[in-house]
């Protein structure tokens, strides 16, 4: 009896970090991937988050319902070169338009390629015919080409969660062609916005000599691949429900009573230089300087959980912000009023959505951001009868969809201060109109729509 292989095989998700069962899925990526695997069944492969004596000495397997988790540990040296080094000190700043922060240590690139090769070796052994493989983010750009070298012929898609800068900047990357050309080994490359897609096509056409055909199809040598725009969404309904219910939670009641009727401006960001936090603090200080009327009537809560704290640039930004917050409070605070509440802690999503709902203004001003899920979560958390106003950087991918936000250039202190002033005074009717338009987008393009459209394009 012959066995007919199933035509739609498993889904294999690959990302640097894997959100294991019972771990809080931090951020939209982890929860989207978890939901995709729950829906379709399949395998999630990546780094365990643990450091061991040797990289990938064993593959750890864990089974939970329809999902199989396979993870590997990294050695200290590989972790330092691959993750802290090339991923976070070379690629991350470059992809966020900060060539001045790029670290050119060649050992980092070697470590990055070495870890990708180990990922490819271990993963290739787990791939079955008809599996579709979905690789995520800048940590794993060359993975498909290394899988192809090992004979993997399956459909492989790549999604980049960061922005992609224009070719003129990408060429600042050491050995850029060697790395970026490997994107041609995928069947599908997805980005958040049309601007990122233009950058990808421009790079391939002008730097590698690839041919661009209609429908965003590219051909480089004998490889053909598709590129496409897939703006990531959030679980809109779930966020809205959590926010509506959060009012009775202790931390939300505590926040409300501490405000004593003052208007709240909120920012929530990983502590990262791409998020524009020093510029944001300056703009708030400028508002206080210009508008003495608002003194004691407004409070700015900035939640900024530390991230990547072994990387020096991240320690530096933390010091800068502590200084700035202290200075602003020193100048403007009164015995019964603290203008900035700056909190280096992380909170459960249920609490965050309650905080968002109590804020009259969501202040989301990254210098560059692939998408920015906080902007979307802020909008989805609002009370439809009395929604707050989103002040959003033009340089966040989210600005392409949420054009009823007050869009600002985050580096322009006066413009951000103007937007804050306008947001704090905005009449209810205008707030409702803007909020409804943004909520329509979030309901239509939620996280389920995102992963289904990417997977449909990959399997096409
Ligand atoms: C990358 C890209 C792209 C924040 N503080 C806490 C907390 N968060 C959650 C937010 C949100 C997520 O983390 C942050 O997502 P962002 O999109 O804002 O930013 P990145 O982490 O830089 O994400 C970005 C994204 O990937 C997806 O493609 O949009 O451009 O840079 O969900 O709520 N979560 C918890 N406690 C916190 O204190 N639990």
List the defining traits of the structure above.
10-stranded mixed β-sheet, 6-stranded parallel β-sheet, globular, 43% helix, alpha/beta, binds GDP-alpha-D-glucose, single chain, disordered N terminus, 460 residues
Strand order of the largest sheet: 3-4-2-1-5-6-7-10-9-8
Total DSSP helices = 16
- Quaternary organisation: single chain
Overall geometry comes to globular
Kindly state the percentage of residues in helix: 40-55%
Q: Which residues form runs of ≥5 with pLDDT under 50?
A: 1-6
How far apart, in Å, are the first and last alpha carbons? 30 Å
Outline the fold blueprint.
Elements: E1 11-17, H1 27-40, E2 42-52, E3 60-64, E4 67-75, H2 76-95, H3 106-124, E5 132-136, H4 143-149, E6 155-159, H5 167-170, H6 176-180, E7 188-191, H7 194-208, E8 211-213, E9 217-220, E10 223-229, H8 236-245, H9 250-259, E11 263-268, H10 277-290, E12 298-303, H11 312-332, E13 340-343, H12 349-357, E14 361-364, H13 373-380, E15 389-393, E16 406-408, H14 413-424, H15 428-444, H16 447-459
Parallel strand pairs: 1-2, 1-5, 2-4, 5-6, 6-7, 7-10, 11-12, 11-14, 12-13, 14-15, 15-16
Antiparallel strand pairs: 3-4, 8-9, 9-10
Helix pairs in contact: 1-16, 2-3, 3-4, 8-12, 10-11, 10-14
Bound molecules: GDP-alpha-D-glucose.
């Amino acid at each position: 009896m012959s066995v007919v292989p199933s035509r739609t095989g498993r889904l294999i998700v690959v990302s640097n970090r894997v959100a294991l069962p019972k771990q809080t899925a931090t951020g939209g990526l982890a929860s989207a991937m978890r939901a995709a695997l729950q829906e379709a069944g399949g395998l999630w492969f990546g780094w365990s988050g643990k450091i061991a004596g040797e990289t990938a000495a064993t593959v750890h397997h864990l089974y939970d319902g329809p999902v199989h988790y396979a993870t590997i540990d990294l050695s200290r040296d590989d972790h330092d070169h691959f993750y802290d080094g090339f991923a976070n000190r070379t690629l991350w700043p470059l992809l966020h338009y900060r060539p001045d922060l790029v670290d050119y240590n060649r050992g980092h690139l070697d470590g990055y390629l070495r870890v990708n090769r180990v990922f490819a070796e271990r993963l290739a052994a787990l791939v079955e015919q008809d599996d579709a493989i979905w690789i995520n983010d800048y940590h794993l750009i060359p993975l498909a080409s290394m899988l192809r070298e090992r004979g993997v012929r399956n459909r492989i898609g790549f999604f980049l969660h960061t922005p992609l800068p224009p070719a003129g900047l990408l060429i600042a990357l050491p050995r850029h062609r060697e790395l970026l050309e490997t994107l041609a080994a995928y069947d599908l490359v997805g980005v958040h916005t049309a601007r990122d897609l233009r950058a990808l096509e421009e790079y391939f056409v002008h730097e590698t000599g690839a041919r661009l055909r209609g429908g965003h199809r590219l051909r480089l040598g004998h490889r053909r691949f598709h590129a496409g725009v897939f703006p990531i969404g959030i679980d809109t309904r779930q966020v809205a429900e959590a926010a509506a219910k959060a009012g009775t939670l202790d931390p939300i009641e505590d926040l409300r009573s501490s405000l004593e009727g003052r208007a709240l401006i909120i920012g929530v960001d990983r502590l990262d230089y791409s998020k524009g936090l020093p510029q944001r603090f300056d703009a708030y200080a400028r508002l206080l300087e210009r508008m003495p009327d608002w003194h004691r009537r407004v409070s700015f809560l900035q939640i900024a959980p530390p991230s990547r704290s072994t990387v020096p640039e991240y320690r530096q930004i933390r010091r800068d912000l502590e200084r700035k917050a202290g200075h602003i409070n020193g100048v403007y605070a009164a015995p019964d009023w603290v203008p900035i509440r700056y909190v280096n802690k992380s909170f459960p999503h249920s609490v965050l959505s309650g905080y968002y709902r109590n804020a009259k203004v969501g202040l989301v001003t990254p210098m560059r951001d692939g998408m920015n899920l906080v902007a979307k979560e802020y909008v989805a958390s609002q009370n439809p009868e009395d929604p707050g106003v989103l002040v959003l950087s033009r340089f966040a991918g989210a600005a392409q969809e949420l054009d009823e936000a007050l869009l600002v250039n985050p580096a322009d202190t006066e413009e951000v201060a103007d937007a804050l002033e306008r947001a704090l005074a905005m009449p209810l009717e205008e707030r409702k109109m803007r909020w409804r338009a943004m909520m329509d987008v979030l309901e239509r393009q939620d996280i389920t729509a995102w992963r289904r459209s990417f997977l449909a394009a990959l399997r096409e």
